[in-house]
Amino acid sequence: xxxxxxxxxxxxxxxxxxxxxxxxxxxxxxxxxxxxxxxxxxxxxxxxxxxxxxxxxxxxxxxxxxxxxxxxxxxxxxxxxxxxxxxxxxxxxxxxxxxxxxxxxxxxxxxxxxxxxxxxxxxxxxxxxxxxxxxxxxxxxxxxxxxxxxxxxxxxxxxxxxxxxxxxxxxxxxxxxxxxxxxxxxxxxxxxxxxxxxxxxxxxxxxxxxxxxxxxxxxxxxxxxxxxxxxxxxxxxxxxxxxxxxxxxxxxxxxxxxxxxxxxxxxxxxxx
Amino acid sequence: xxxxxxxxxxxxxxxxxxxxxxxxxxxxxxxxxxxxxxxxxxxxxxxxxxxxxxxxxxxxxxxxxxxxxxxxxxxxxxxxxxxxxxxxxxxxxxxxxxxxxxxxxxxxxxxxxxxxxxxxxxxxxxxxxxxxxxxxxxxxxxxxxxxxxxxxxxxxxxxxxxxxxxxxxxxxxxxxxxxxxxxxxxxxxxxxxxxxxxxxxxxxxxxxxxxxxxxxxxxxxxxxxxxxxxxxxxxxxxxxxxxxxxxxxx
Amino acid sequence: xxxxxxxxxxxxxxxxxxxxxxxxxxxxxxxxxxxxxxxxxxxxxxxxxxxxxxxxxxxxxxxxxxxxxxxxxxxxxxxxxxxxxxxxxxxxxxxxxxxxxxxxxxxxxxxxxxxxxxxxxxxxxxxxxxxxxxxxxxxxxxxxxxxxxxxxxxxxxxxxxxxxxxxxxxxxxxxxxxxxxxxxxxxxxxxxxxxxxxxxxxxxxxxxxxxxxxxxxxxxxxxxxxxxxxxxxxxxxxxxxxxxxxxxxxxxxxxxxxxxxxxxxxxx
Lengths: 272, 250, 268
What we know:
The complex is a heterotrimer. Chain B is mainly α. Chain B has eleven helices and two strands; from the N terminus they run ββααααααααααα. A two-stranded antiparallel ribbon of chain B has the order 1-2. The longest helix of chain B is centred in the N-terminal third of the chain and has 34 residues, at 50-83. Chain B is globular and about 70 Å long. The model of chain B has no long low-confidence stretch (mean pLDDT 86). Helix content of chain C is 34%, strand content 26%. The radius of gyration of chain C is 18 Å and the shape is globular. Chain C has nine helices and eleven strands. Mean pLDDT of chain C is 87; it is low at 1-7.
């Protein structure tokens, strides 16, 4: 349980008390810190320390321009293709494999080491290899997304199933529940919160995978916007493209987190 | 798992997969996988070359520098967030944003700012590793038992002594964060070099693909994988030595 | 009132009424050669409440789970109504120490779980569940979730769930240990009242001597390392009057002292 900040805060002083009086709500703080970052960004650019570093305002203007002329929309349409397909496959195989590993010791023995290796290893190193064998088309990009997203989904699903309270499992056995009943009435509902967390992490990795794929394999969609604008030195546009994909990924993952918290309220998650 | 009463060790499954790999390669079932034995044979050919040694040097230097920086900044940041509530409310949002963001997308920006060389890779490693270290350090600090702090205060401990207690109490979480940071750092060092592509392993991968050297490609990947897993194992061992008191914290 | 005492000599133990559960030569050894139970011979009589009493490590929960069919013994047999059993059965229901409620389900759904597993239709099982929910005193809480209930209330849900399947034998694993003292006392009184309505056989695991003497028709005392039956005591206390009066009853108090004197030797 998180301890009270006041119990061990050697740095609490005048400034923090003052700041506390000014901004009490966390939302205000978030908006403030965003504004602060954008201000610093703009100011840094104004110093012209690097000719290739556009400011916040220029980047936003370029962003708006690309949205308006449809190039941003078209780019995302291209990017979403491998992303969604890859995520769908990763989810399907990942959750199935994870649950199977959780339920059966033989499946666990055989496939867990593979997933653990995939999780720890720099899978990005395989992208040039995939490109080499499967070309520069959709297949390689989907594979790139899967390689990055699947391990974390599978391992989280596996852990979720294994962590179901043994007491609950005993309870269903004591009432003569069949294995099938145990799986669907106890194990899957109990494992859902952790599985969903894994899915959220998988989506974040999926975004990473699709960006990598588009920068490394062949530029399409957002990757194309980034590479092209870099090559013609339209840095504001390049930054705008980067900003958009980062923002999209962060917002998507945050929304998933919100969903997770509403669906699986912490109190309901606590064992018994 | 048990087969006919004999307990099979966990990692033995990997041997099964390697065998499968060998069969797939020998019968050319999947273009992606040359026979495992040929990959092993290519290992000395990869390891011996000057270009590999150069790539290895670049990788090690940028990785260790970036990771070192990430540990120092990450632990400091995590301490800061854990101890100062206002700071936590502001910074926590950013740490979580950077955790879930596709960091690869930021590498082009890093390349512009730091050039097409080792500094970019160092910064990439740093960016990949620092956030999880900060977050786990913060968690460890927040988990410091209030009664432990009260005890220290009641015995008249100074600010620095209390800080030391907090750090030691949070050590299991900090090490867990560093372990994750180590793994992310390896991903960072690979991605950085792939995107810069004219140095290090990125250059090597280009070289092998241009010359259709599949086995060498895989040999290099195996080396990278072993590097990552070996490091993770090291930190694991370190963690195990500290874990003994994690369970008895109230 | 008088008290009879028997030593656990299998040859001389004769049931007063027909035994519903017989435990015959049960042995249980855990990995690492820890002998949890050694050569247990017991009989449980229909309609009685028997307590398994002893300090931690004496194997009482292990024994209860073996009787319930949740654990397998290394040797020996458990017979219910004369028939050997090796797993859980409809005639036996278990109440868990940590409640084992599904946190994502309402009180009603939790209480009806045993019936749902048996395939009973929804309307019927909800009806039955409601009956037992009110019997344990939780009427009005059917739509609440476990996290909205206190520990004592959660345990009542567990009890309602076990009652709802209409088993002959109810096994309770330290059912009142996870609640506070006041709630615990109330529970004990409620259990005596409940026994007047539900004529079932109860087997209770407890480490509290007072609780065992307060509730039981028979107390089986187990000693640890290895777990074996050391004594069987039959308190003869009239429980029909004021529940408070029992706690001042001299036989009750004397028996507690005697049992404590015996158990002291086994406590570390």
